[in-house]
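Consider a typical record:
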Amino acid sequence: MILVLERGNLQGGKIDFGENLEDALKREVEEETGLIVEIGQLLFATTFKTSSTRQVVLLTYLDNTESVSVTLSEEHDDYHWCKNDELSRYLQSDHMKELEENQCLTYLQ
């Protein structure tokens, strides 16, 4: 199953200076959801510009957790644990398209 935060976004955040990618991911997931995760495989990476002076790099990892009990930070209002066929209810269409195009959903069956 995949965790989707109410705003239709996958968990994420910024990397602190000097922090490696996996440590940043663990920290951000724990800060936003209270979950302790084991970092798995990097599924895909993409980048896009949000303005003429700002570019975002999006890295999508397959992570695992022993818990399903989520404690949301103030950044989020609600969450949903979803199966593949439920994701389109909660994810924005561009996120859904990227997951499908990069065959990420095959890892969640």
